[in-house]
């Protein structure tokens, strides 16, 4: 009987000691993880700011794919909400309280397996690498006595949440990079192009340096037009006057459509041209310009397969409907290819 009393007393001492140990653990916690993702800041912001995108990379939903998700009337920016209820991830809800391109703050309310609140936050900072972003994901809050006891057995908040944050950032990286690489090529076929006046600047280069050259030429055209109060009347395009595969060279012009004939100053590198209306074989590329060679190749194959005669008296060109200046995600870019054809003519052998 005396031994039993001693055991009970010892148990009480251990229990009280353990309770004191739990009580003196830090009440506040903060867990963060940081990585660099090779994507523009604005592109990443769109994926994080839109709660409907979260199931695609959320590390907890991956563990509980049958969890029920509900979205509020607003899913983007301040006031966006969504809630979850699952066997593994429990029950809770989140609401965005602050949202800018470089910072997002959210309030989280956990309902089960135990009730608590926390502050979830994101930081998006430009990296020294071109088109790369430093992404930080963090959470901070307070722990009650029972939460501290649970976390003590689970190795603490850092070990409990940190690996999930790392997994989430890795999935976000993979998702964004894969989506940025998506593209499609649509062979439209015969179409009418209205033609018209355009300002242009001509250059020659190696074929693989054409884009590099036009990236410098289009801003020069834009600056000239702004200085002379000239408004564009259409989307920019590149006119290919000569494409020499034997010597790997090209002669081309960067062009911007204008409403009327413009008299440029004598000696100016920028001139005004006119394109007659005509019939072309048209192809649309939705996605990164790196896929333009494939689009041109498929266009030529279609022309050959359908025995369509190319008009040698006119030049082919490509237009840029949606450019990187307005659409940072390469998957959103939109460009068109026009190869001049002879209507109702037999293709020469």
From TrEMBL:
- Please give the superkingdom of this protein's source: Bacteria
Q: Among its keywords, does the record have Iron?
A: no
Q: Which Gene3D superfamilies match?
A: 3.30.530.20, Regulatory factor, effector binding domain
Q: Does the keyword Chloroplast apply?
A: no
Residue spans crossing the bilayer: 6-24
Alphabetic keyword roster: Membrane, Transmembrane, Transmembrane helix
Q: Which residues form the AraC effector-binding domain?
A: 183-342
- What is the protein name for this chain? SRPBCC family protein
Organism listed in the record: Galbibacter pacificus
């Amino acid at each position: 009987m005396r031994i039993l009393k001693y055991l009970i007393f010892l148990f009480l001492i251990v229990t009280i000691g353990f309770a004191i140990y739990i009580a003196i653990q830090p009440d506040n916690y903060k867990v963060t993880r940081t990585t660099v993702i090779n994507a523009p800041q604005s592109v990443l912001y769109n994926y994080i700011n839109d709660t409907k995108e979260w199931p695609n990379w959320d590390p907890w939903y991956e563990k509980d794919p049958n969890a029920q998700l509900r979205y509020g009337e607003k899913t983007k920016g301040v006031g966006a909400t969504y809630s979850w209820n699952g066997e593994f991830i429990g029950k809770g809800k989140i609401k965005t309280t602050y949202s800018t391109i470089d910072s997002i703050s959210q309030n989280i309310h956990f309902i089960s397996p135990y009730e608590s609140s926390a502050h979830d936050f994101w930081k998006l900072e430009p990296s020294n690498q071109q088109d790369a972003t430093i992404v930080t994901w963090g959470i901070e809050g307070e722990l009650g006595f029972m939460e501290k006891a649970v976390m003590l057995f689970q190795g603490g908040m850092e070990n409990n949440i940190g690996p999930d944050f790392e997994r989430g950032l890795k999935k976000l990286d993979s998702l964004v990079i894969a989506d940025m690489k998506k593209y499609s090529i649509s062979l439209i076929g015969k179409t009418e192009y209205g033609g018209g006046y355009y300002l242009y600047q001509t250059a020659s280069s190696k074929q693989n340096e054409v884009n590099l050259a036009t990236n410098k030429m289009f801003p020069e055209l834009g600056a000239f037009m702004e200085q002379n109060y000239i408004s564009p009347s259409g989307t920019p395009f590149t006119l290919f006057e000569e494409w020499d595969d034997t010597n790997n060279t090209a002669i081309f012009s960067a062009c911007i459509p204008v409403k009327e004939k413009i008299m440029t100053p004598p000696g100016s590198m920028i001139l005004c041209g006119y394109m007659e209306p005509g019939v072309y074989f048209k192809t649309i590329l939705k996605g990164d310009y790196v896929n333009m060679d494939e689009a041109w190749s498929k266009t030529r194959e279609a022309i050959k397969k359908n025995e369509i005669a190319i008009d040698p008296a006119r030049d082919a060109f490509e237009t840029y409907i949606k450019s990187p200046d307005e659409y940072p995600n390469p998957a959103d870019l939109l460009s068109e290819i026009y190869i001049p054809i002879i209507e109702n003519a037999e293709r020469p052998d």
